[in-house]
Design brief:
Chain B: GO terms for molecular function: oxidoreductase activity, acting on NAD(P)H. The complex is a heterodimer of chains A (64) and B (395). Chain A has 64 residues and is an alpha+beta fold. Chain A contains 2 helices and 4 strands. Chain A has a single domain (2-63), classed as Alpha-Beta Plaits. Chain A is globular, with a radius of gyration of 10 Å. The N and C termini of chain A lie close together (5 Å). The chains are: A alpha+beta (64), B alpha/beta (395).
Chain lengths: 64, 395
């Protein structure tokens, strides 16, 4: 699984961090997403996919 | 519910698209139709008042999914056709093109329609903003204009005021309430928002109503209750939106400022609602609520899909929403009743970096962050479920 971020679309909602805290974090100053794992291990794939679905700005793209 | 072989989702925006997609992801293999009254592919609305209006995004970037995604998922799109009626007993939805579609499961996700002033909307230059066409038309007029009046200082009005100011226009923001967003966030945050707008050159005319819109063919000004006329070549009317439920009149589906649903988002036998149009019993807060925010469209769409597939889980989210205005990123979780007491828990209002907690009857019901996203996310957990939560059913 490959994860990409559209930083331009990110609104800093933090839903991805709630859904998959091992894969995503937020910048302190503006809340923008920080991708911790571009290629998350299989046990984190479901959570990563859930994060992408939840993102209110559609800023997370998951390629399998 | 019996066999589920035909699902019709009425409303092809975030809630409807999410419902349809989740049904497929979770294994639904029957027929699936997504009906939308707009002709274009389903798109996302929050960027309309921000990036699209500012011109930093081409309108096409708001498209939710490429057309191929609907084909791949076996979702039949019926775009450009509005639902006009519902026959509950017969299990059919009537469309504006004369078609009738039968369903075993119906999802109502028709969203809201902007409210209009009782006058002025026939004049060119007077806009509302809900659809992508609205956004493109408004941007076109803003680029040709020098003075805009925004009527209504809620989320949409304040965001458009900020976007228009950044385009270099002379902006006046009018609202009958004393401060922008005061109904949403209370005096102190609203004061900070007012200061931000004034500092950026937005002229605030709050605590005053609108009595007339002047103009011959095109708008020339907006008259206020004190008799003054504010010059305008563009007017945005952003005075709220009403649930789009006219097509349900007389159908037997309970409607009261939205489609009234139980905790599982069920409105009637085989009929569910999601997104801006749904007023459902949220057990987390122990009451009926209707949430006009983007995050809820996704979450409720997912929940309704699962309910259709047999889950009995109540939909009990903590609502999340955000607004971007000038350099302020304001985010909030929970609810913000007028009687709530607001306490600054981190940072400070003067620094324009803070998290505030809103307390009602001794519990935290909402948390709001201003340029403090990380801390806000951590404080979300303080919003505890209502101890008096009970289940409610709608029959």
């Amino acid at each position: 699984m490959k994860v990409r971020i559209d930083v331009d679309a990110c609104v800093g909602a933090g839903q991805c961090v709630l859904a998959a805290p091992d894969v995503f974090d937020q910048r302190d100053e503006d809340g923008m997403v920080v991708l911790l794992l571009e290629d998350p291990p299989s046990h984190l794939e479901a959570a990563t996919e859930h994060a992408a679905l939840l993102c209110p700005a559609l800023a997370i793209v998951v390629d399998r | 519910m019996g066999n589920l072989e035909r699902v019709v989702v009425v409303g092809a925006s975030a809630a409807g698209v999410t419902t349809a997609e989740t049904l497929r992801r979770e294994g639904y293999t029957g027929r699936l139709t997504l009906v939308g009254d707009e002709k274009v592919l389903p798109y996302d609305r929050p960027p309309l008042s921000k990036q699209v209006l500012a011109g930093t995004w081409e309108p096409e970037k708001t498209v939710l999914r490429p057309e191929s995604a609907y084909v791949d998922h076996g979702i039949k799109l019926k775009l450009g056709s509005a639902a006009t009626g519902l026959d509950l007993a017969g299990g059919t939805v009537a469309l504006s093109n004369g078609e009738e579609i039968g369903y075993d499961g119906l999802v109502i996700a028709t969203g809201t329609t902007p409210r209009e002033l009782p006058f002025g909307h026939h004049l060119s230059g007077v806009h509302v903003l809900r659809t992508i066409d609205d956004a493109v038309a408004l941007r076109g007029d803003l680029l040709r204009s020098s003075a805009v009046v925004v009527v209504g200082a809620g989320f949409l009005g304040t965001e458009v005021a900020a976007s228009a100011r950044r385009l270099g226009l002379d902006v006046t923001l009018v609202d009958p309430l004393p401060l922008p967003l005061v109904r949403q966030f209370g005096d102190r945050v609203a004061t900070a928002i007012a200061e931000l707008h004034e500092e950026q050159g937005v002229r605030l005319r709050t605590g005053i109503g609108v009595t007339a819109v002047h103009g011959d063919v095109s708008v020339s000004g907006v008259e206020l209750t004190d008799g003054t006329v504010v010059r305008a070549d563009v007017v945005l009317v952003a005075i709220g939106a009403a649930p789009a439920t006219g097509w349900l009149d007389g159908s037997g589906v309970p409607v009261d400022d939205g489609v009234v649903c139980d905790a599982t988002c069920r409105a009637a036998d085989g009929v569910y609602a999601a997104g801006d149009v749904a007023r459902w019993f949220n057990p987390h807060f122990g009451g009926l609520m209707r949430v006009e925010h983007r995050m809820n469209a996704t979450e409720q769409g997912m929940a309704v899909a699962r309910t259709l597939l047999g889950a009995q889980t109540p939909f009990a989210p903590v609502p999340y929403f955000w607004t971007d205005q000038f350099e302020a990123k304001i985010q909030a979780y929970g609810v913000f009743p007028a009687e709530a007491e607001m306490v600054v828990a981190h940072g400070g209002l003067a620094e324009r970096k803070f998290v505030a907690h809103y307390l009602a009857r001794g519990r935290v019901v909402g948390v709001l962050g201003w340029n403090m996203a990380r801390q806000l996310r951590q404080d979300r957990q303080l919003i505890s479920p209502a101890t008096t939560a009970r289940t409610s059913a709608v029959s």
